[in-house]
Amino acid sequence: MSLENVLVAVGEDDEGRTDAIEQITADITGPAKGEIHLAHVFSREEYGRFRDQLDFDKDSEVTPTAVAERQVNVRGMTDAFTAAGVKTTTYGAVGKRSEQIVSLAEDIDADLVVVGGRNRSPTGKAVFGSTAQQIMLEAPCPVTFVRAG
After folding, report:
1. Of 34, 37, 45, which Cα lies nearest the Cα of 104?
2. In CATH, what number is assigned to the domain containing residue 107?
3. The total number of structural domains that make up the chain
4. Tell me, what's the pLDDT at 43?
5. Sheet holding 112-117: strands in order across?
Protein backbone atom coordinates (compact mmCIF):
# COMPACT_ATOMS: atom_id res chain seq x y z
CA MET A 1 0.00 0.00 0.00
CA SER A 2 1.32 3.44 -0.85
CA LEU A 3 0.17 6.76 0.50
CA GLU A 4 -0.39 9.80 -1.67
CA ASN A 5 0.42 12.66 0.70
CA VAL A 6 3.23 12.21 3.22
CA LEU A 7 4.60 14.97 5.46
CA VAL A 8 8.17 14.54 6.68
CA ALA A 9 9.23 16.73 9.59
CA VAL A 10 12.93 17.46 9.06
CA GLY A 11 14.94 18.71 12.00
CA GLU A 12 18.46 20.02 12.22
CA ASP A 13 19.32 17.13 14.54
CA ASP A 14 18.01 14.46 12.14
CA GLU A 15 21.39 13.99 10.49
CA GLY A 16 21.88 10.51 11.97
CA ARG A 17 18.39 9.48 10.84
CA THR A 18 18.14 10.88 7.32
CA ASP A 19 18.92 7.60 5.54
CA ALA A 20 16.31 5.74 7.59
CA ILE A 21 13.73 8.50 7.13
CA GLU A 22 14.37 8.59 3.38
CA GLN A 23 14.13 4.80 3.01
CA ILE A 24 10.96 4.40 5.08
CA THR A 25 9.26 7.34 3.40
CA ALA A 26 10.21 6.26 -0.13
CA ASP A 27 9.00 2.71 0.59
CA ILE A 28 5.67 4.01 1.88
CA THR A 29 5.11 6.60 -0.83
CA GLY A 30 6.47 4.76 -3.85
CA PRO A 31 7.87 6.39 -7.00
CA ALA A 32 5.53 8.65 -8.98
CA LYS A 33 2.55 7.66 -6.80
CA GLY A 34 2.53 10.34 -4.18
CA GLU A 35 4.06 13.53 -2.96
CA ILE A 36 6.39 14.06 -0.06
CA HIS A 37 6.12 17.34 1.78
CA LEU A 38 9.32 18.20 3.64
CA ALA A 39 8.87 20.62 6.54
CA HIS A 40 11.51 22.34 8.63
CA VAL A 41 10.38 24.46 11.58
CA PHE A 42 12.77 27.05 12.99
CA SER A 43 12.72 28.77 16.34
CA ARG A 44 12.95 32.57 15.95
CA GLU A 45 16.62 32.45 16.94
CA GLU A 46 17.46 29.62 14.52
CA TYR A 47 15.69 31.35 11.66
CA GLY A 48 17.61 34.58 12.22
CA ARG A 49 20.91 32.73 12.52
CA PHE A 50 20.37 30.59 9.39
CA ARG A 51 19.12 33.53 7.38
CA ASP A 52 22.22 35.52 8.33
CA GLN A 53 24.56 32.61 7.50
CA LEU A 54 23.09 32.01 4.06
CA ASP A 55 24.00 34.10 1.07
CA PHE A 56 20.72 35.95 0.59
CA ASP A 57 20.56 39.45 -0.83
CA LYS A 58 20.35 41.72 2.22
CA ASP A 59 17.55 43.80 0.64
CA SER A 60 15.32 40.89 -0.34
CA GLU A 61 12.50 39.48 1.75
CA VAL A 62 13.43 35.94 2.72
CA THR A 63 10.74 33.43 3.67
CA PRO A 64 11.14 30.53 6.09
CA THR A 65 10.55 28.21 3.12
CA ALA A 66 13.49 29.74 1.21
CA VAL A 67 15.73 29.22 4.25
CA ALA A 68 14.42 25.65 4.78
CA GLU A 69 15.16 24.75 1.15
CA ARG A 70 18.83 25.49 1.82
CA GLN A 71 19.03 23.55 5.10
CA VAL A 72 21.44 20.60 4.70
CA ASN A 73 19.05 17.80 5.76
CA VAL A 74 16.21 19.18 3.61
CA ARG A 75 18.46 19.49 0.55
CA GLY A 76 19.76 15.96 1.02
CA MET A 77 16.27 14.49 1.35
CA THR A 78 14.99 16.49 -1.62
CA ASP A 79 17.83 15.14 -3.76
CA ALA A 80 17.24 11.57 -2.59
CA PHE A 81 13.48 11.65 -3.20
CA THR A 82 13.89 13.36 -6.57
CA ALA A 83 16.40 10.68 -7.62
CA ALA A 84 13.85 8.04 -6.55
CA GLY A 85 11.22 9.66 -8.77
CA VAL A 86 9.08 11.06 -5.95
CA LYS A 87 7.69 14.58 -6.16
CA THR A 88 8.68 16.78 -3.22
CA THR A 89 7.59 20.14 -1.88
CA THR A 90 9.39 22.02 0.88
CA TYR A 91 7.83 24.14 3.61
CA GLY A 92 9.53 26.30 6.18
CA ALA A 93 7.93 27.82 9.25
CA VAL A 94 8.89 29.68 12.39
CA GLY A 95 7.33 28.76 15.72
CA LYS A 96 6.68 25.80 17.97
CA ARG A 97 7.67 22.69 16.03
CA SER A 98 4.84 20.39 17.07
CA GLU A 99 2.15 23.01 16.45
CA GLN A 100 3.54 23.95 13.05
CA ILE A 101 3.85 20.32 11.89
CA VAL A 102 0.32 19.43 13.04
CA SER A 103 -1.08 22.55 11.38
CA LEU A 104 0.72 21.77 8.12
CA ALA A 105 -0.49 18.15 8.23
CA GLU A 106 -4.04 19.50 8.49
CA ASP A 107 -3.50 22.08 5.73
CA ILE A 108 -2.14 19.59 3.19
CA ASP A 109 -4.51 16.79 4.24
CA ALA A 110 -1.59 14.47 4.98
CA ASP A 111 -2.14 10.71 4.93
CA LEU A 112 0.91 10.19 7.16
CA VAL A 113 3.46 12.23 9.11
CA VAL A 114 7.02 10.93 9.47
CA VAL A 115 9.08 12.33 12.36
CA GLY A 116 12.53 11.58 13.69
CA GLY A 117 13.43 11.53 17.32
CA ARG A 118 15.70 10.19 19.96
CA ASN A 119 15.15 7.90 22.89
CA ARG A 120 14.32 9.65 26.14
CA SER A 121 13.54 8.37 29.56
CA PRO A 122 9.97 8.88 30.80
CA THR A 123 11.32 11.50 33.21
CA GLY A 124 13.10 13.31 30.38
CA LYS A 125 9.85 13.46 28.41
CA ALA A 126 7.91 14.74 31.38
CA VAL A 127 10.45 17.42 32.22
CA PHE A 128 11.48 18.56 28.75
CA GLY A 129 8.53 17.50 26.61
CA SER A 130 8.84 15.77 23.27
CA THR A 131 8.09 17.33 19.91
CA ALA A 132 7.60 13.91 18.32
CA GLN A 133 5.28 12.85 21.15
CA GLN A 134 3.15 16.01 20.75
CA ILE A 135 2.92 15.41 17.00
CA MET A 136 1.88 11.78 17.58
CA LEU A 137 -0.85 12.86 19.99
CA GLU A 138 -2.22 15.76 17.95
CA ALA A 139 -1.72 14.87 14.27
CA PRO A 140 -4.84 14.39 12.17
CA CYS A 141 -3.39 11.21 10.64
CA PRO A 142 -1.09 8.31 11.55
CA VAL A 143 2.50 9.15 12.51
CA THR A 144 5.62 7.08 11.87
CA PHE A 145 8.45 7.65 14.32
CA VAL A 146 12.01 7.01 13.10
CA ARG A 147 14.87 6.99 15.56
CA ALA A 148 18.59 6.93 14.96
CA GLY A 149 20.29 3.54 14.99
Report:
1. 37
2. 3.40.50.620
3. 1
4. 92
5. 87-94, 35-42, 5-9, 112-117, 143-147
